[in-house]
Structures are given as C-alpha cells and as structure tokens.
Amino acid sequence: MIWLMLLSLASPAVQAQEPGARAFQRCAACHSMQAHDPRSAAPSLRGVVGRRAGAVEGFAYSDALKAAGRRGLVWDEATLERYLADPEAVVPGTDMPFQGGSAAERAALIGWLRQRR
Fold first, then answer.
1. d(CA 78, CA 35)
2. pTM reported for the whole predicted model
C-alpha cells in the first residue's frame, strides 16, 4: 500500500502540477476547495484569501479562531504566511495542527489559493 502512495507522488501528473497545487495536497487531508463540502473535516479554502477568520457558515471553529475573527483577523497573504508557518503563534489555542512546509511552499500555496475565489 505504501509503495502505491509513493508511486502516485512520483507520477508525471503530480510532478506536472504547479507548486501551489502540489502544496495544497497536504491541506486536502482536511480542507476542500469546494464551497460547501460536508465531507470535509475543516472549512473550505476556496476564497480564503481576504476572508475574515472563522467566517465559513456552518463550520464549528475553535473558540480561539472565532475570537480572532471577531477581533478582525483577516486571511490576507501576510497573515496566511505567518499562520501556515506557526498556527499557534498567530491564533493561540487553534485546533489546526499543521505547519505548512518551507517558505517557498507556503508562498506557492498562498498564490494558488489567491487565484481560487
């Protein structure tokens, strides 16, 4: 089974994807790019750039993320960069356990997300 996963990562289709799309594959374990995906464990990232934190209707955000949104936290590119590098430093008490790879991977991901509104 593991060899199938590794083989899929080495496939030409995955290698041909733009860097932001490749970086999003890690996010896709929890997040979706569909506007309202009931199967997703985390809120949709479609249109996240420019969105107020904790603002997707129907998603049960952590108290920390809801409070950050009420205080005016908006997912602009600089905030996303800091959050993906260290979620707990930006929103103490957040439930997001992920840290987003290298600075180049984060930049590619944020640019890719910016294009998907």
1. 23
2. 0.81
